[in-house]
Amino acid sequence: MPKPARKKEKDPEGRMPLAEHLRELRNRLAKSVFAIVVVAVVAAFYYKDIIDVFKHPIQDAIGCKVSFAELANKGDRKTCGNITMSGLVGPFTLMVKVSLVSGVVLSSPVWLYQLWAFLAPGLHKNEKKYALSFVAAGVPLFAAGGFFAYKILPAAATVLIDFTPSGVDNLLPLDELIDLVTRLVVVFGLSFELPLLLMMLNFGGVLSGRRMLGWWRGMIMGVTIFAAVATPTVDPFSMFALAGPIILLYFIAVGIALLNDKRKRESNPDHMLADDEAAPLDLTPQSIGDSEPMPALPEQSTSGSPSGHRSGYDDVT
């Protein structure tokens, strides 16, 4: 009976041929896609509940409690909107979209781990520890950004619906409403990852904490402008709801970066020395010792040479 093939030992430095890199990438992608598909299939059975989670806050803030016909008969007509669907296949398309987005978001721990596992063999031991910590911190930060977006949705909807001209009925397509909510959640979630990116650059030695602290004026201005553009409303409440937590996280990241720089300086005994003092060169001349004598050349016969020269040598030699 043939013996099973012995499993190859992994290189401690993570080196492997290109074919194995591609094979591992294929396996990691397959696991990530499988997790997304499984979660999306499960979410498809509960997609109405998922839609209600995002629809109810907006519907409570701007939804019409009565029909447009009853509103038209009222003298003091209130601006509101009715959430609608368009087309026969519209509900099915919305179900597929909501299921896929839910699959990508809810399975993020799985595909983030697969991404880290693919990059980990090429990292040093301390870099692996930092990479896993950053991945573990990235998911809660993204969730916190999405939570802030969810909380300001009613206020944002109230401000936007007030721009409706008087005497005009406002119909809110549900698919467009879900797209707006999704964009807000993604923008807020990704913006909360900015401090984490700065910390990654600091721990990687690319950016110092002192330099990050020197950017505080420009950072506050840039975050405020970004919040004003990213939020769909013109009220200052939504803008500061996004800008305030990002600025706070930025200063927390600066504090951690300064502590990390201090730790690196204390662990390096040469941190107080200049570059030319940390590794001095000894330029004192030293004896190279006795030279090795060259062996004598063997005598060569001149016979057989018509010009009388030594074979293998010219006149100069």
UniProtKB/TrEMBL annotation:
Which keywords belong to this entry?
Cell membrane, Membrane, Protein transport, Translocation, Transmembrane, Transmembrane helix, Transport
Give a yes or no for keyword Membrane in this entry.
yes
Listed GO biological process terms = intracellular protein transmembrane transport; protein transport by the Tat complex
Q: Which InterPro entries match?
A: TatC
Q: Does the keyword Transmembrane apply?
A: yes
Compartments annotated for it: namely: Cell membrane; Membrane
Q: Which GO terms describe its molecular function?
A: proton motive force dependent protein transmembrane transporter activity
Membrane topology of the entry: Multi-pass membrane protein
Q: Name one GO cellular component term.
A: TAT protein transport complex
Q: Which residues form a coiled coil?
A: none
NCBIfam families assigned: tatC (TIGR00945)
Concerning its family, UniProt says: Belongs to the TatC family.
State the function annotated in the UniProt record.
Answer: Part of the twin-arginine translocation (Tat) system that transports large folded proteins containing a characteristic twin-arginine motif in their signal peptide across membranes. Together with TatB, TatC is part of a receptor directly interacting with Tat signal peptides.
Subunit structure as annotated in this protein's UniProt entry: The Tat system comprises two distinct complexes: a TatABC complex, containing multiple copies of TatA, TatB and TatC subunits, and a separate TatA complex, containing only TatA subunits. Substrates initially bind to the TatABC complex, which probably triggers association of the separate TatA complex to form the active translocon.
User: What's the protein called, per UniProt?
Assistant: Sec-independent protein translocase protein TatC
Taxonomic lineage is:
Bacteria, Bacillati, Actinomycetota, Actinomycetes, Kitasatosporales
In the UniProt record, what gene is named as encoding this protein? tatC
